[in-house]
Specification:
421 residues, globular, disordered N terminus
C-alpha cells in the first residue's frame, strides 16, 4: 500500500510516439495542426468508453419540422413520444426556446449536424435518462431568460437517480451560458464518451438559487464509472473544470484544453482518474495557484495517474499518485500535450466548420488570452462588452467545498435529481 503523500510541482512525463489520434484525427508528432476545420471532422469515429454507443441506429427516422417548444413536429415530441429506437434529424434550423427540460430515453440519436442552419436550445437542459443515447451537432445555451428554474439549467445532464444508464456519446456540441453545470454526469452512469465539445461561459452571479454558480463539468453521485472526457474545450468557467468526486471509477481525462478557470481548475476527490495530456492555460480570472487540486478522500491505494499534462499540482492537496495507469483505459490514443491546444481549438464545437460568432469569439479569446467569466449573456451578445464592476457575492464553491466525500450532497426532488448542485 502506497503511503498518502503531499504532492507538489508539475508531473510531466515525455511521451514518445510516432503518431497520435484524437477523436479519429491522426497527427504525426511535430506536425503543425491546421486551424482550418475539415467538414469531415463531424464524421470522425467515436473513441473512449462510449464508443460502442449506437443510439437510434436501425430505428426509424424522425424529422423535427417546428421550432415550437412542444407539439407536432417539435424536438420535444420527437424525443419524448414513445416509439422505440429513432434517429432525430432537423428539417429546420433556428432557436428552440424551452420552457422546461427535455428528457431523453433509451436508443435515441439527436443529430443537429445536417440541419439547414444551426439548432440552438435556450431556457432549459437536455437530460439523458435512458441508455444508448447520442447527442451531436447541437448548440445548447440555457441562458438567464424565460424557461426552467435556475437549478435545472445545466446544458446537458446524464443521470436519473439510481437508475442504471449505459452507453452515452456526447460529441461535437457547443454548450454555454448554463446556470448550473455546462455538463453533468451524476449517479449510476457508465460507458460514456464526452468528446470535442465547447463547454464555456457558465453564468456566475445569475439566477441559480445557491448564488454564484459558474460551473463547467461535474462527474459524481457515487456510481459513475468508465467515463472518457477527450478533446473538449472548457473556457471561462469559475469551478468544476472538471470536478470528479464520490468514488467515481475509471475516469479518463485525455487531451482537454481548459482556459481561464477561476479559483478551481481540475478538482478530483476520492476517485480513480487517469489524467493524460491535458492543457491548462491561465486567464484573467484564474487565481494565482496551480490548477490541479487532488485529494485522496477516504481511499488509500494510488488512484491518480498523471502524464504529460501542462498544469501543476497544488501544494495543499493530499493525494497518492501512481507511477502507472490506475485502471485499464479505453484505448483512446493520446496526443502529446504540446499539440493539444491547436488540435482542440480546431476540432471542438458544433457543426464544424460552420462556427457561429459566439464560438468564434470564445476560440479567439483562448488564442489571445483574453475574455472573462460572465454573469449574463447580455455581457457578450453582439460582442464582448467591458467587464462591469463586480458586486459582492458569497462564494458557493471554495477550493474544498463540494469536492470532499462528506459533502456529496444529494439534490432535493424539487431540483430534479441529476447533478450535484
Amino acid at each position: 500500500m502506497a503511503p498518502s503523500v503531499r504532492v507538489t510541482g508539475l508531473l510531466r512525463l515525455a511521451v514518445f510516439v510516432t503518431g497520435a489520434v484524437i477523436a479519429g484525427w491522426v497527427f504525426g508528432v511535430g506536425e503543425a495542426v491546421s486551424q482550418t476545420v475539415p467538414s469531415e471532422a463531424q464524421d470522425a469515429p467515436p473513441v473512449g468508453f462510449g464508443a460502442a454507443t449506437t443510439g437510434g441506429a436501425g430505428g426509424r427516422s424522425v424529422a423535427v419540422t417546428s421550432l415550437a417548444d412542444e407539439g407536432p413536429g417539435s424536438l420535444r415530441a420527437a424525443i419524448e413520444a414513445p416509439g422505440g429506437p429513432r434517429v432525430i434529424h432537423f428539417d429546420i434550423g433556428g432557436t428552440i426556446a424551452l420552457s422546461r427540460q427535455i428528457e431523453i430515453g433509451s436508443d435515441i440519436t439527436v443529430d443537429g449536424r445536417g440541419a439547414p442552419s444551426a439548432v440552438t436550445l435556450t431556457g432549459g437542459r437536455l437530460r439523458v435518462i435512458g441508455s444508448n443515447v447520442i447527442l451531436r451537432g447541437l448548440r445548447v445555451r440555457p441562458g438567464d431568460g424565460p424557461g426552467d428554474g435556475g437549478e435545472n439549467r445545466d446544458g446537458i445532464s446524464i443521470g436519473w437517480g439510481k437508475a442504471a444508464i449505459r452507453n452515452v456519446l456526447i460529441d461535437g456540441n457547443s454548450i454555454s451560458w448554463s446556470v448550473d453545470e455546462g455538463l453533468a454526469v451524476w449517479g449510476n452512469v457508465s460507458d460514456v464518451t464526452i468528446s470535442n465539445n465547447i463547454i464555456a461561459e457558465g453564468l456566475d452571479q445569475s439566477i441559480h438559487p445557491k448564488g454564484r454558480h459558474s460551473m463547467g463539468l461535474l462527474v459524481g453521485g457515487g456510481a459513475a464509472q468508465r467515463i472518457t472526457l477527450v478533446g473538449n474545450l472548457m473556457a471561462h468557467n469559475r469551478h468544476r473544470n472538471p470536478a470528479i468526486k464520490d468514488h467515481s471509477r475509471s475516469i479518463e481525462l485525455i487531451n482537454n484544453l481548459v482556459y481561464n478557470w477561476g479559483p478551481n481548475g481540475l478538482q478530483g476527490t476520492g476517485s480513480e482518474i487517469n489524467i493524460l495530456g491535458n492543457v491548462y492555460v491561465r486567464g484573467p480570472d484564474s487565481v494565482e495557484r496551480p490548477p490541479f487540486y487532488l485529494q485522496d478522500g477516504d481511499l488509500t491505494e494510488p488512484h491518480f495517474f498523471l502524464q504529460d499534462n501542462i498544469g501543476a499540482l497544488r501544494e495543499d492537496g493530499v493525494a497518492t499518485l501512481s507511477e502507472k495507469p490506475v485502471f485499464e483505459g479505453s484505448g483512446t490514443p493520446v496526443l502529446p500535450s504540446a499539440q493539444v491546444e491547436e488540435a482542440v481549438l480546431a476540432h471542438a464545437g458544433a457543426r464544424l466548420p460552420e462556427r457561429d460568432a459566439i464560438d468564434r469569439r470564445i476560440i479567439e479569446e483562448v488564442r489571445s488570452r483574453s475574455g472573462y467569466i460572465i454573469d449574463s449573456p447580455e455581457w457578450v451578445i453582439g460582442g464582448r462588452k467591458p467587464k462591469p464592476e463586480p458586486e459582492p457575492a458569497e462564494e458557493v464553491e471554495s477550493s474544498e467545498a463540494c469536492t470532499t466525500i462528506g459533502c456529496s450532497e444529494a439534490p432535493s426532488p424539487a431540483a430534479d435529481i441529476g447533478n450535484g448542485g
